[in-house]
């Protein structure tokens, strides 16, 4: 089915509300809003958005401080407020919202505060690995599990902060050239478009938004809110999609990196059921919405026409 071409718009900001760059696709049915992860841009959702567009109006946007959106305070609450502004600006009635990583955490928080949604889907939207879960999964003492989980979390934050630090323009250009052939299992066109939209050139240096300080600030806020954020009871049908594929190899990674992340995923899937919340395993390499867009689009669509539709 042919779909209308995507369009771009800007949601104007104010003193404490940054302007937000939005990409929309017109279509029939219930609207869907897609939120990217920390350090990403709306481009990372482009393949999924194209798959959903024949059945839904689809909106993606750069989170505050990312891509072409303006800077703002680095708080989860601020990102939740931004999602509300996008929904209000375009007059979206009973939308579904879906997010990955940071976007997944924002989606889960939004679903815990708003009852005027059709559904919410959070893809790997959890942050800190739980020491008790890691200990039980790996069969090690809680103290060792806590240390391993903390090491993994700090390593991943350090890696993202380093990736967003200024680099010589020629280094960035070589990275982008490498992305064109695909990185890990992410399609080359998606990886390239995401990097280019996040990049800021200044003299002979290139930085990727949101920058290292913002990465650390938002990561700290996510950790501080872990107990009352993604774990909060949702007010609308909410699906946690948990990828169980291999995490890409990273030079210098902690010895238990993959084991800790696997334990985190297993804990999310084994969490006791709660009202309005279900979890689904997705056999897809990290990050699932970029490596397996068809599977993620199917998971969202199936949830909207299944549990979320009642």
TrEMBL record:
Domain of life according to the entry: Bacteria
Record Gene3D superfamilies: alpha/beta hydrolase
GO MF terms, alphabetically ordered: catalytic activity
InterPro entries in alphabetical order: AB_hydrolase_1, AB_hydrolase_fold, AB_hydrolase_sf
Cellular compartments per GO CC: membrane
Pfam families according to UniProt: Abhydrolase_1 (PF00561)
Residues annotated as domain AB hydrolase-1: 31-125
Protein name per the record: Pimeloyl-ACP methyl ester carboxylesterase
């Amino acid at each position: 089915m042919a779909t209308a071409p995507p369009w771009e718009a800007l949601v104007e900001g104010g003193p404490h509300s940054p302007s937000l760059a939005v990409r929309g696709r017109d279509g029939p049915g219930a609207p869907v809003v897609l939120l990217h992860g920390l350090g990403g841009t709306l481009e990372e959702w482009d393949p999924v958005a194209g798959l959903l567009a024949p059945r839904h109006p689809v909106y993606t946007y750069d989170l505050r401080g990312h891509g072409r959106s303006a800077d703002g305070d680095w708080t989860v609450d601020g990102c939740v407020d931004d999602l509300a502004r996008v929904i209000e600006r375009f007059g979206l009635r009973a939308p579904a919202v879906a997010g990955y990583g940071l976007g997944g955490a924002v989606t889960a928080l939004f679903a815990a505060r708003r009852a005027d949604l059709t559904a919410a889907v959070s893809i790997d939207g959890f942050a800190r690995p739980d020491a008790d879960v890691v200990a039980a999964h790996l069969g090690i003492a809680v103290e060792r599990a806590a240390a391993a989980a903390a090491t993994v979390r700090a390593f991943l934050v350090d890696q993202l902060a380093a990736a967003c630090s200024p680099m010589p323009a020629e280094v960035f250009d070589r990275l982008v050239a490498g992305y064109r052939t695909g990185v890990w299992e992410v399609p080359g066109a998606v990886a390239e478009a995401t990097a280019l939209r996040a990049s800021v050139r200044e003299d002979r240096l290139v930085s990727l938004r949101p920058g290292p300080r913002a990465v650390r600030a938002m990561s700290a806020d996510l950790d501080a809110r872990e107990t009352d954020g993604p774990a909060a009871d949702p007010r609308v049908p909410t699906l946690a999609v948990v990828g169980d594929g291999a995490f890409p190899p990273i030079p210098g990674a902690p010895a238990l990196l993959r084991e800790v992340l696997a334990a985190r995923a297993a804990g999310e899937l084994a969490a006791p059921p709660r009202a309005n919340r279900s979890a689904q395993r997705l056999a897809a390499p990290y990050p699932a919405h970029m490596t397996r867009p068809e599977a993620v689009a199917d998971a969202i669509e199936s949830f909207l026409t299944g549990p979320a539709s009642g």
